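Open question from group meeting: does this chain pack into something compact, or does most of it stay loose? Before anyone orders reagents, we agreed to write out a predicted structure and look at it together. Recording both the input and the output here so the notebook holds the full record.
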Amino acid sequence: MNGLRDTSQVRDIPVVASPDEASAGRFVDLVEVIRRHVFLILLIASAGAGLGYLSYVKTPPTFESTCGLLVTNQSKESAMPFQGAENAQVKDTFPHAMLINSTVVIKNALTKYELNKLPLFAGDDSAVSKIKSDLRVKFELDSPEILGLSFTSQDRAACEVVLDAVIKSYRDFLDDNHESINTQVVDLIGQASQELETQLTKEETEYEKFRSSTPLLFAGGTTAMNLHKERLSKIEDERSQLMIAQNSRQSELQALTKAIQNGGNREALELVIQSQRAMRAGGDSLRGGMKSVASELFPMLTEEQMLLQKLGSDHPKLQELRQKIVMTRQFLTEDLTTEQREAVDRKRGDFVSIYLDSLEHEIMLLKQRMEELNSFFQEESAKSMELTQFELEDISWRDKIARTKQLFDGVVKRLDEINLVKGHGGYKTAIISPPTDAYQVAPSLIKSLLIGFILGSFVGFGLGYLIELCDQTFRSPADISEQLGLPIVGHVPVIPVSKRRFRSSTKIDTTLVTFHRPNSRLSEAYRAVRTALYFSTRGEQHKVIQVCSPNPADGKTTLACNLAVSIAQSGKKVLLIDADFRRPRIHKVFGLQAKTGMSSVIAGVTELPDAIQSTEVENLSVLPCGPRPSNPSELLTSRRFEELLAVIREQFDFVIVDTPPVLAVTDPGAVAARVDGVIMTMRLTKRTRADATHAVGVLSSLGANIFGVVVNGIDGRSRGNYSYGNQYGYGYGGGYNYGYGEGRSGAYYADEDEPMRTIPQR
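Structure tokens returned:
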């Protein structure tokens, strides 16, 4: 079997972003931010509430006085109600809301009603601006004629006085300007009325000149008529009738001709012709005035046949009728050509032939009439187009005069209304609620505390969000799977170290917990990885599995050794290869010699059977590193290494290959391209997210088939959400869940009575 895998059969590996891209595009769950940093948010929110209280204590009080003012238009009261009066009231009241807070009214209140003598404004040149900024005027859409006035100030006594003075100044302004405004309005409207009347007279005079010079006719003195359009309509009606008659005669002629060609009975055809003549006699208006051979000769020819049967061929009456037939035929064929006349003579005595000739003659006359009407239609159409411009101009004149007249009527009506209400005055004001005693409106203790608390919450949340963005650790298994696009196949707790040696006769290192303590929860964790590996291989044999990590000290060698022991304990024949030529350690874990090993086999110095060493674990063999080479990358990329893997595949059920860290050297990339799958292990540190993302990206770019991730060194007492007490699912099947808990759950294992301390792992 060729050791170089066909990458087309490898399952799709998700594309993983680089560390910078992953950090920049990381999505932070807002709910998780609140949950994880709730105490920080509450602390800063409480501080914000404290600052709000301090602001409340330090801020001087502000007072406010309010009043209500009714503003009515006396002109509108005297006029009749009209549609849309509510909208008109809003438009009418809105300018007064601006007028009350105008500079003119406020200046008059300062001087006339001595507001400038108040302590609040004494010697202050900006008194007008202060009053305008603190005075509020508003109205409701439901009652637009009612204005609400309010004035706020830190001087309680000044609030009521200022409102009273402003209202009086506003009333004075209305009274002083009412009469002059009415007079100006009347003058302006009267001037507009005269101008519109002059314009209307001028337009009517010019329109009369236009009518006298235009070729159009005016029905009833107002509506313009284009006679050529009327004629075109009549011509079109006659053309339609001619077209129908021509088609009818043509169809009849074709039908009779075809019947004669097919040898039809002459007598039957004569009966058909007579019935057609009878049907057309009353309804064919086009035949009037046209000479038709059939219409004139058929009655006489019919009578001739009847006399011939009754009286004989020599009867004088029959001879007289025949002479009449000859004279009629001559008269009807006078305008025919010589050839046509000869054709008629040849067909003389044949009713059907004569009728066909009459149809042809009639069709010819209809065509001539149609040509005459077409020529007449074109002439009238050209003349009608010449008059169209005059019609459009007439319409324009009438519309223009109508608009001017409408404006004039509106101005006259408005002038009459103003003259009608001129003596009734303008706007009337009434105080419906006098200025109230000033009351404190600010600061508000509840509002200050609430604003401070809300602002503090936002600051705390923002700080927590920034902490989450800067945090490069994983928070949960789902976080790892989402970031790396890989399943979690195992969680290995911190390995405890016993104060005593479990087996004094063995040379195997105590980190091989699956050998020393097979019933412990640590061993169960490695067996969970083994189970996940079985699921991923779908029961297939001869699998070559690479174990690597992003960085040194992630526990890859410990995982590789314990995983190999777990697989061997299940009855599989396993070979553990130490492909870490930089820092080999597997031979030390198993207490073996490393004089020869994989480097010797690849270099051709030693044969493979001589380099493989058996161990104390049944079904488990080890291929140590051997002498450390000076060119490890070249050995792993050589053809010899590929052939070595092909041979090993045939001899073992599972082959576990321990390689250096992915981000430290390039050796793991050379191995990943030749194995059946990769298991990556890592510890949760501050740089785990970035390093793991980078390592998966490197392996994916090489087409590696990454089975999943093993999280190493999980401490049940560690802080944060990602702890040893959670439940995780192993394997691709999704059905194998195993929980490692604290407390009483630890009593399930036989080897859990040992004190715990962390042992450095690679």
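Observations to bring back to the group:
The longest helix spans residues 351-421.
The longest strand covers residues 62-73.
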